[in-house]
């Protein structure tokens, strides 16, 4: 009998202990669930009120806690006790689940993440998590396009004799919008661009359009707003993943998806203009500007077509941190990179005439001043029969390249974090690499944002001579300039070469480390159809463009002119972005990183 009693007491003790352990496990799990509820709650508030992070919401008890009294209007100070919100508003007992959060939004104003520390509490058990929140942006993808047809402003794809129709993005009359391929764009003769078998995109790809492809490689995921892609599910045969590519009359494009199933996703949209950069801290220049980044954290700037309007420095302290006007218009001003801020190039004031730049007028290092050629201020706009011939880069005859326009010419080795934006276009005149390379420990990061285009510099020289307006004229004739193009005479010089200082990358062609956004047009190579193969265009970062830009011609993996593509995602962009880099216009906040941390002592009861 005694033995039976002892066994009964042992069983009872085991049952009670098991119940305690079960209760502990339940509370421990509930506390973690409460923490995640806090994350979800804060994200929901951000997405309802996009600038929710800017001010402390005194009505939100989950925010109440010890903080600097000067950071809020709630009367909360370093001695304020932590406040808690219940996961279920109808259950507010001591045993129920609550959450409290602390917010670090110091980087959010410049486009950086919000760090949220959330503590969940359930029946005396506490668990805390740290969550990194960011708005969706083009930096989430190695490559994005809105429309997969050629840029309607591309005069090689759409010559003046055969301009793009409204459905292709040309002059758009009221009530007519550009079409995606799946909205019957084929019927309008738009110039379509195809990914070739030699194209290699290492990172996630997204297009609002239906992508034409002939065997390229997409290594890490492919998303499209092409509705037919909704038919591709986890059970779909790999052979039918082609449904996410272009369907041209029953014939589908092909691609190597690297065993990663392509997926449908609702469209994302770019902003229409870079004008917001005029209000952001950093350096603002006027008219055509040349910048060479130096590996010591400085940049040399030439800004000669400013109409006497000096640079505007915002948030950079006293002095002339963006350069003296006399240096900018002379041999160049070497200044510190405004790291964490922006450089913005606006159009020059109206006092600057709208004309082609004279040779060397944009400026640059000795022996490589732009534009190239021999055109001078004495070269007449309308020649006579005896006017002297001159040489000139034919790219610079486009009205968008006039000296008064807000273009920036860029190259070099960047040390720092910077976004360069242009009211017109950005022209990459040489390699753009980071002083710290692409290592995860590197703090260097570059954004390139152009209202119109980002262009890879490919000078195509012409010899301009006077010719008769009327070829049969024999007396009192009028003349015009006519170019005989012989191609670039300095292909060994352009684009200018800068090696990756870490030695981790080596590119035969042109390398750009950075995130690119072209808001109205495209990322392309100047005169891409002229000359010989230029090697590989490698971008380590991300690319987003309104229209497909053309970088070369050829067949498969063989380049005839211009470049082959190699686009590689900079994985640091998963949790960071260049300063003030634009998010999608329809972006939402979301959680990018989530990990458990020790519960702060000040939030425990």
Summarize this structure as a short list of keywords or feature phrases.
605 residues, mainly beta, 16-stranded mixed sheet, 7-stranded mixed sheet, 33 strands, globular
Textual characterization of the structure:
- The protein is globular.
- With 605 residues, it is mostly beta strands.
- Helices cover 8% and strands 32% of the residues.
- The longest helix has 47 residues, at 2-48.
- The two termini are 48 Å apart.
- The strands form five sheets. It has a 16-stranded mixed sheet that branches.
Compute the gyration radius: what is it? Answer: 30 Å
Oligomeric organization of the protein chains: single chain
The tally of beta strands, per DSSP, is 33
Residues in helix, %: under 10%
Please render the helix and strand layout as text.
Blueprint: H1 2-48, E1 85-86, E2 97-104, E3 114-122, E4 125-135, E5 143-150, E6 200-202, E7 205-207, E8 214-218, E9 222-224, E10 247-248, E11 251-252, E12 254-256, E13 263-264, E14 282-286, E15 289-294, E16 298-302, E17 312-314, H2 325-328, E18 333-336, E19 341-346, E20 390-393, E21 408-414, E22 417-422, E23 426-434, E24 445-450, E25 454-456, E26 461-468, E27 479-485, E28 509-518, E29 523-525, E30 533-548, E31 552-555, E32 558-569, E33 589-597
Parallel strand pairs: 5-7, 5-30, 6-8, 6-32, 7-9, 8-12, 9-13, 14-19, 15-21, 19-22, 21-23, 22-24, 23-25, 24-28, 25-29, 28-30, 30-32
Antiparallel strand pairs: 1-2, 2-3, 3-4, 4-33, 10-11, 14-17, 15-16, 16-18, 20-26, 26-27, 31-32
């Amino acid at each position: 009998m005694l033995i039976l009693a002892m066994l009964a007491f042992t069983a009872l003790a085991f049952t009670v202990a098991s119940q305690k352990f079960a209760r502990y496990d339940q509370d421990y799990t509930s506390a973690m669930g409460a923490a995640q509820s806090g994350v979800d709650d804060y994200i929901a508030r951000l997405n309802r009120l996009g600038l929710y992070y800017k001010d402390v919401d005194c009505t939100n008890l989950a925010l109440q806690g010890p903080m600097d009294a000067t950071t809020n209007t709630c009367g909360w100070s370093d001695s304020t006790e932590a406040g808690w919100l219940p996961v279920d508003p109808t259950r507010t007992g001591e045993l129920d689940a609550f959450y409290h959060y602390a917010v670090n939004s110091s980087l959010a104003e410049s486009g950086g993440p919000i760090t949220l520390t959330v503590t969940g509490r359930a029946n005396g058990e506490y668990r805390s998590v740290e969550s990194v929140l960011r708005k969706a942006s083009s930096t989430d993808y190695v490559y994005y396009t809105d429309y997969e047809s050629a840029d309607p402003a591309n005069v090689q794809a759409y010559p003046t004799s055969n301009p793009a129709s409204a459905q292709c993005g040309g002059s758009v009359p009221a009530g007519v919008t550009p079409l995606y391929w799946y909205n019957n764009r084929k019927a309008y003769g738009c110039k379509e661009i195809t990914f070739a078998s030699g194209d290699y995109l290492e990172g996630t790809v997204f297009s609002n359009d239906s992508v034409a492809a002939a065997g390229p490689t997409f290594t890490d995921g492919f998303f499209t707003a092409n509705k037919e892609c909704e038919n591709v599910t986890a059970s779909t045969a790999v052979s039918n993943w082609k449904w996410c590519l272009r369907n041209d009359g029953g014939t589908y494009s092909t691609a190597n998806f690297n065993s990663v199933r392509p997926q449908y996703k609702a469209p994302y949209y770019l902003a229409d203009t870079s004008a917001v950069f005029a209000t952001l801290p950093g350096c603002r220049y006027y008219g055509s500007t040349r910048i060479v980044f130096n590996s010591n954290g400085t940049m040399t700037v030439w800004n000669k077509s400013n109409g006497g309007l000096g640079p505007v420095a915002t948030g950079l302290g006293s002095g002339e941190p963006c350069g003296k006007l006399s240096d900018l218009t002379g041999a160049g001003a070497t200044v510190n990179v405004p790291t964490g801020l922006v450089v913005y190039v606006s159009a020059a004031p109206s006092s600057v005439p709208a004309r082609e730049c004279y040779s060397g007028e944009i400026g640059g290092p000795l022996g490589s001043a732009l534009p190239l050629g021999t055109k001078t201020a004495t070269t007449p706009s309308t020649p006579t029969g005896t006017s002297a011939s001159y040489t000139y880069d034919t790219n610079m005859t486009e009205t968008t390249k006039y000296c008064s326009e807000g273009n920036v010419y860029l190259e070099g080795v960047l040390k720092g974090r910077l976004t360069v934006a242009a009211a017109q276009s950005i022209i990459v005149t040489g390699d753009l690499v980071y002083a710290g390379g692409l290592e995860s420990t590197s703090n260097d990061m570059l954004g390139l944002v152009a209202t119109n285009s980002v262009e890879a510099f490919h000078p195509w020289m012409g010899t301009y001579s006077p010719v008769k307006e009327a070829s049969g004229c024999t007396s009192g004739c009028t003349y015009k300039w006519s170019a005989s193009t012989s191609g670039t005479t300095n292909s060994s010089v352009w684009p200018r070469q800068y090696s990756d200082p870490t030695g981790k990358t080596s590119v035969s062609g042109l390398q750009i480390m950075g995130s690119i956004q072209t808001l109205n047009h495209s990322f392309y190579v100047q005169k891409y159809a002229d000359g010989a193969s230029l090697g590989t265009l490698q971008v380590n970062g991300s690319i987003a463009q309104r229209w497909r830009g053309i970088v070369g011609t050829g067949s498969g993996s063989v380049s005839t002119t211009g470049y082959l593509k190699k686009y590689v995602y900079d994985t640091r962009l998963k949790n960071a972005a260049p300063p003030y880099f634009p998010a999608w216009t329809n972006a939402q906040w979301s959680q990018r990183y989530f990990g458990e941390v020790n519960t702060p002592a000040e939030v425990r009861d």
